[in-house]
Amino acid sequence: MFRFLTAGESHGPGLTAIIEGIPAGLQVLAEDIDIHLQRRQGGYGRGGRMKIERDRVTFRSGVRHGQTLGSPITLEVENRDWQNWQVKMSVTEVEEIVEPVTLARPGHADFAGSIKYGHDDIRNVIERSSARETATRVAVGALCMIFLRQFGVEIRSHVLAIGPAGDASNSAIAHNFDETYWQQVEQSPVRCGDAALSEQMIACIQDSKTRADTCGGIFEVVASGVPVGLGSYSQWDRRLSTRISAALMSIPSIKGVEIGNGFEQSRLPGSQVHDVIQYDEKQGWQHRTNHAGGIEGGISNGERIVARAAVKPISTLAHPLPTVDIRARENVSEGRYERSDVCVVPAAGVVGEAMLAIALTEAWLEKFGGDSMLETLANFKAYVATIQG
Q1: What is the CA angle 118-119-120, rounded to 5?
Q2: Residue ranges of domains in the chain
Q3: Distances (CA, A) of 59 to 74, 95, 191
Q4: Cα–Cα distances in Å, from 287 out to 50, 169, 294?
Q5: For helices 345-368 and 134-149, what crossing angle results, to 10°?
Q6: pLDDT score of 50
Q7: Which CATH architecture has domain 3-388?
Q8: 355-379, pLDDT tens digit by residue?
Q9: Distance of CA 268 to the CA centre of its chain
């Protein structure tokens, strides 16, 4: 069984993840994970924190001589900003007076988290609810992508819209993008493969920054090379669509998820929605279209897995909204400002890749099992041989 936990605060010493279930014998290099951590830190519209951090992963267990051991893997990502927060975030009591945070930011976890856990200092909520935690999940997801790549699976993401600037038709549902396209995405400051649209997105972010506001958008994640048969219709929580949707919804600021062109399908007749199935002696099973986004009945159908996520604007505003003081229980005309980004949609797409990889790895190991990579690969090849005939 594949599972993992993360721990750590936004301004604490660092972030930690413990991963269990990755088979022994997977070749892993820290630099292959660091690439994705750096991608998460990029994107036009990011704030000052990303200028401080230089995210790198350090393995503490489970890897020897560049290969996984089959035992739990511990990895850490250092918080460089911890140097500036050692008093405010000290584990032990301090003599200095630390001013509590009492003004809750609308749209953030500040209010609900403080009430739930009984905190009268919102700092206790901010530190763990911060999207900084996703750095650890990107590291875990990068490890999963290394694992899935051994079976021919590739995972990508691109941005479809930022604010009003967008083109939903530029989707992997309708296009089989080549490597050149994905290189253009990586070169774009907003991770959009359309150069003209990228400029419109940048202008939207600039406009939001000028108005001391924030903006959201939509990203799409794509997994190619996934065979028929991951997930199950037998129970609601074993459906692959359930797992992927939950994984994407777990990312901070995500307010909507669709598999394939899910929302559009609600407005169309069935004859224009369902993907016609065909068999070819050379290519095997295939579909004429991929409106379902690679999943039917909760099971992967052999087409590319395609999912989209709607990212709301960041909750922290340079011109704060009215709010409440949770200690004094008084309404105030203006809240507080916590250092923040203007737009995180490009970075959220990178986190989306990680979460898709995590969901697929869980389903993959559930189906193919194996304590070593040799065993898992043998099980996979044997299964594929049975469905190709």
Answers
A1: 120
A2: 3-388
A3: 6, 35, 29
A4: 43, 19, 10
A5: 50
A6: 58
A7: 4-Layer Sandwich (3.60)
A8: 999 999 999 999 999 999 999 999 9
A9: 30
Q: Compute CA distances 83 → 88, 127, 196, 232, whole Å.
A: 11, 15, 41, 48
Q: What's the token pair of residue 294?
A: 């690679």
- Determine the angle formed by the axes of helices 345-368 and 240-249, rounding to 10 degrees: 150
**Length in residues, the chain:** 389
C-beta atoms surrounding 265 within 10 Å: 17
How far apart are alpha carbons 356 and 243 in whole angstroms? 9
- Taking the CB of residue 224, how many other CB atoms lie within 10 A of it? 17
CB-based contact 240:363 (threshold 8 Å): yes
Q: How confident is the model at residue 222 (pLDDT cuts 50, 70, 90)?
A: very high
Query: What average pLDDT does the chain have?
Result: 94
Whole-prediction pTM value?
Answer: 0.95
| Amino acid, res. 51 | K
Q: What is the pLDDT of residues 27-85, one digit of tens each?
A: 999 999 999 999 999 888 766 555 667 899 999 999 999 999 999 999 999 998 888 89
Q: Tell me, letter by letter, the H, E, C secondary structure of the chain.
A: CCEEEEECCCCCCEEEEEEECCCECCECCHHHHHHHHHHHHCCCCCCCHHHHCCCCEEEEECEECCEECCCCEEEEEECHHHHHCCCCCCCCCCCCCCCCCCECCCCCCHHHHHHHHCCCCCHHHHHHHCHHHHHHHHHHHHHHHHHHHCCCCEEEEEEEEECCEECCCCCCCCCCCCHHHHHHHHHCCCCCCCHHHHHHHHHHHHHHHHCCCCCCEEEEEEEECCCECCCCCCCHHHCHHHHHHHHHHCCCCEEEEEECCHHHHCCCCHHHCCCCEEEECCCEEEECCCCCCCEECCEEECCCEEEEEEECCCCCCCCCCCEEECCCCEEECCCCCCCCCCCCHHHHHHHHHHHHHHHHHHHHHHHHCCCEHHHHHHHHHHHHHHHHC
Q: What are phi and psi of 153, to 5 degrees?
A: -95, 130
Q: Is the pLDDT of residue 289 over 60?
A: yes
Of 124, 94, 92, 93, nearest to 326 by C-alpha is 124
Angstrom distance (rounded) from CA 155 to CA 168: 19
